Amino acid sequence: MFSNLFHPERYHGHRRRPPYFEGWYFKLVDATETHRYAVIPGIFLSDDPDRHHAFVQILDGSTGEATYHRYAADEFWAARDEFDVHIGPNRFSSDRVLLDIADDARTIKGELTQSTPTPWPVTPTRLGIMGPYGWAPRMECNHGLVSFDHSVAGTLQVDGQAIDFDGGRGYGEKDWGKSFPAGYAWMQSNHFDTPGTSFVGSIAIIPWLFSAFPGFIIGLHHEGVLHQFATYTGAKTTELAFSDEAIDWTVVDRKKRLEIHADRATGGLLYGPTRTDMSDRVGETMLATVTIKLTDHAGGVIFAGEGRNAGLEVHGDLDRLLALQTQERAV
Considering 48, 157, 230, 323, which has the largest number of Cβ atoms within 10 A of its Cβ? Predict the structure, then answer.
């Protein structure tokens, strides 16, 4: 539906043909910052109908334990005019996460409410975090930012243990398309010393016509202002380096400079989409830290801080991603 272009949080797959996936990402951290969970509901449609299925993935960000809970495709239902998704007895919307999972892998039941969301603004020329690329047909992977930061309340029973999320913080995003990028890095935190500050950034190999380029999108939401750096804003990456311990990434535009240092940490393995199945194993941690410094070109500091409980994924063909970045910088 055309109107859904202006609502990234809604289900976009009603008229899509396989291969196709769509998934939402709910990050949940309790007030003590002891308990961290990622809840990832979604659906996968394959060229092989026998592989069609819905799913709910759960990542315990404190232990790294990840579980994949599979449902028949006909147990998936999504509204056409709002964000309301059902997968078996589980239900997801902008203000609610209802979980009712009980199988050999894990038992997790309860209801959480989410309030005061901060979405990425959507305009006719920039469809949220995708910017003008949100209008491009046949993108391999589309991205939506549902909420930079919001409050969480309620209780989950996880394998018999009651976890109180009253006073907790949440973050929400989603992806949809044919498959994840061949190589990418993603990082996110909304736990800075300044309440309400949230950061998200990703860089990936983007197929385009008969070639590819290193596309990136970064948002720093601080004190009510969204600082955007992206390929479509004209920003440039001047440094990008990966090691086993950290990621260093610097971007600049006409007015500002953003320096990013992310310390990597152990995590769990999630399933990611390929064109044939949910078979790609993607490592994700929720124990990383992200240190950022935003300055103007005169050297004045706009923001500097360290984000805790950071989500971090580094996956795929990083050598090709770096090679494409080197080529672009040389142009």
Answer: 230
